[in-house]
Amino acid sequence: MSQALTLAQFPVPSATGSLEAYIAAANRIPMLSEAEEQHLARRFRDEGDLDAARQLVLSHLRLVIAVARGYLGYGLPHADLIQEGNIGLMKAVKRFDPDRGVRLVSFALHWIKAEIHEYILKNWRLVKVATTKAQRKLFFNLRSMKSALAHDAQSEAGFASLSPAEVKSVARQLGVKPEEVVEMETRMNGADISLEPLTEDEDEPYAPIAYLAADSSVEPSVQLERKERDRLQDTGLAEALEKLDERSRNIVKRRWLVEDGEEAATLHELAAEYGVSAERIRQIEAKAMQKMRGVLAARM
Question: Which of 90, 236, 240, 266 is least surrounded by CB atoms within 10 angstroms?
Answer without folding.
Answer: 266
